[in-house]
Amino acid sequence: MTDASAGNASQNAATARREDAARTGPMLAADGRPLKASLNRALRRQKMRALLLIAPLLIFILVTFVAPIIDMLFRSVENQIVSETLPRTVVALDDWDAQDLPSEDVYAALAYDFNEAAERRRHTRLGSRLNYETTGLSSTFRRSGRGIEDVGETYAEQFIDLDEAWEEPETWTALMAHPDWLSAQAEWAAEAEAAGRDFDEPEPAFRLAPGIADVLPETADAYRSFARTIQQEDEDSPTEEEPWNTVYLALYRDLAAQPASAVAAYFGPIAAELAAADAAVDGFETVSLREVFGEMDDAWAEMPMWETIDAFSDPYTAGYFLAAIDLQLTPDGIEAQPEDQRIYILLFQRTIFMSLVITISCVLLGYPIAYLLSNLPARTSNLLLILVLLPFWTSLLVRTSAWKVLLQQEGVINDILVWVGFIADDARLQLINNQTGTIIAMTHILLPFMILPLFSVMKTIPPYYVRAAKSLGATNWTAFWRVYFPQSIPGIGAGCILVFILSIGYYITPELVGGRTGTFISNRIAFHISESLNWGLAAALGSILLALVLVLYWIYDRMVGIDNVKLG
Amino acid sequence: MDHKLPPYATLGQRIWFYAFRVICGLIFFFLIAPILTIIPLSFNAESFFTFTPGMLALDPEAYSLRHYVDFFTNPDWQQALRNSVMIAPVATILSVSLGTLAAIGLSQSHVPFKGAIMAILISPMIVPLIISAAGMYFFYSRIGLQGTYWGVVLAHAALGIPFVIITVTATLVGFDRSLTRAAASLGANPVTTFFRIQMPLILPGVISGGLFAFITSFDEVVVVIFVGSAAQQTLPWQMFTGLREQISPTILAVATILVVISIGLLTVVELLRRRSERLRGMSPG
Fold it and tell me: What is the pLDDT of residues A48-72, one digit of tens each?
């Protein structure tokens, strides 16, 4: 067989296969695969290529922009601070009936939590957090941070009077620490000794002795809290520090609560001292923790404090959102804020109202301009369009400063009005630092955003319809109102939504020319972020505003299509 | 209403014709006058924010360059200028490069989830700045970007991206895909095709998108206040502080300079737009 015939044969075979397939199976592509699969593959590859081109930007936007927005939404409900700062108290409050002040057990849990929080300087942060809910708690927490050292002092003195060993750090480490930790610590101390000043390796983290938590549960917990805190905060060692008074309080409570047999069954280190203490505690002078805390600050012996802690002990809260719409969370459910603290609904209303006024002013001023521009010859209209585009391109700050200068009482506009004689020199108009100022300046700033979409719609309206209407006998007004205007409505819609979306979230201009009465919800958000530091409330207000804007964005997308936005 | 008054117009029509022109003239005046007023005011020899009698009498003594001198010698303003010049171009490069790539991807014929992707990419333009600023402040503090140069650059790049996407996709709408196929059939690889064929044709769109991104970053003040620290204080931030606290006439000098810059940018964008429309036969001009 020659090569040619071999080629022929294989060609014939391929043809036969193709014909075969045409009769029985799917159509094939040049390479013998089914055409459908081949096309699908090409389409898939095309899709992949498009996605690969988009991916870097999409990831960039997701990280730099979308993630921050989600973080903000998360912050508006996040409330871990109470359960993180006062973990034991929150657990102890679980079965509190909220009828009367909580039991001594809750106060004891509070003492341990608060002591650690104060040593870690976290109590003031919690104080400011709870102060958003009940005014005055911030100072209570600050004051209590100084007084907490003395809680349990009575018991500490009595234990030390009984046996001076209780004053010694070694007694406590022998009783509480894990033998492994003690040896690791000793090794570390020797190394530190040898290395001298430059030694900066941290001490091994404290570990509890096995089984001690069964005999003295509260003491073990309180001592571990003490040991870890001084290790982390002060870089001190539990081997050299006398425990906090609250540890003695815990020891007293454990010994008083345990049946004697439990202590008798303990054979670890310091068993003798412990047994002696156990025998003596029944004769100890006792104090009511509720009174101790009440002396520190009255708020601890009153219901509002406990109701607030209880209401905000969950790791997530609707509290910020409620506050953002002038409600508050109370033990009896959701209630309105007191009359004098309701500001946010009013502020939202004002923001929406002023945005509407600005949008309407923009339509009234923008419509004639867009109409004029779309009906003039291209040369003239291009020239006049520059007058619209120049403000559009000019810095927002420049335009705001211009208005600040023009609208002042000693400013250009008032000067002209006085000079013309419209107003007396001593009756100059108050045009700035109020709603008037914000509306004038923002109408000016947002006007191009109304004119440009209107203009792009009006350019496409053919002039024949109006001419036809006139030739049929319509007056100028009828021809405009019944024929031209309806065709320009899409432009009005697009412009209005755009201007409204932009104005509802405006911050800079209201801040600079709005004074007290002309500010928007954005200004309040900024205030809570940078001044009052109530980030949760700022996030909740922001989330509400965002929801509002997204609804409008969605409408805009349905109406105009987001890819039809034109710039300039 | 047509642009010329027909000879048979009634008196009422005549009156309305001229009244309408006057109304439009007043609105144009409202648009442009505030910007123009600050220019002469910035040459005020006194530290006033209004025209002094001397200025109205066109007395040369009443005019001076002292506020400009202050701008160019005051270290605060100079530092702010330097910061602005260091932040805006880098943010622009980031948004233009990523944005152009994505716009080319988006203009392909089969893009899955195109609507959703587009909505996400445009969202930085729609979400109110104060919300973006708040979110970025919280999130960037968590990841250690708050108060850093790169934090501000990334934030500004994100804000500029919608403008690049919008202008570049608009240019790509009129792009003839058979040109890239022709290049490919003549043996050019995709990278060569992109730089030799596609890029020169969509360049006007890319440049005007870049100018939009630049001006967005250069004028931006809300996000930089929250994401930046004192070391990133930009020109608009300095102006904002100046307007809020001690309003000094130097602001007017800065404003005038910025107006001149925007006139320059506007001219470039307009020329580019007309050129690309002419090339694509979309406008007779």
Answer: 888 999 999 999 999 999 999 999 9
Sign of CA dihedral A483, A487, A493, A498: negative
How do residues A180-221 score in pLDDT, each as one tens digit?
A: 888 888 888 888 888 777 777 788 888 888 888 888 888 889
Over the stretch B136-183, which tens digit does the pLDDT of each residue have? 999 999 999 999 999 999 999 999 999 899 888 888 877 788 888 899
B2, part of any domain: no
Mean pLDDT of A296-319: 85
Residues of A within 8 A of B35 (CB-CB) are 390-391, 394, 398-399, 402
CA distance A389 to chain B (A): 7
Q: Measured between CB atoms, which of A401, A507, A565 is closest to B130? A: A507
Cα separation, A555 vs A497, in Å, equals: 8
Q: How many domains does chain B have?
A: 1
> What is the pLDDT at residue B285?
33
Q: Which regions in chain B score pLDDT beneath 70?
A: 1-3, 246, 279-285
> What is the residue extent of each domain of chain A?
3-75, 83-152+288-317, 153-286, 345-564
Domain made up of A345-564: CATH architecture: Orthogonal Bundle (1.10)
Six token digits for residue B6 = 């027909």
- Phi/psi of residue B43, each to 5°? -95, 10
Q: At which residue do the structure tokens 């009756």 appear? A: A427
B108, closest residue in chain A (CA to CA): A50
Q: Is A488 on the interface with B (CB under 8 A)?
A: no
- CA-nearest of B107, B70, B90 to B205 is B107
d(CA B199, CA A502): 33
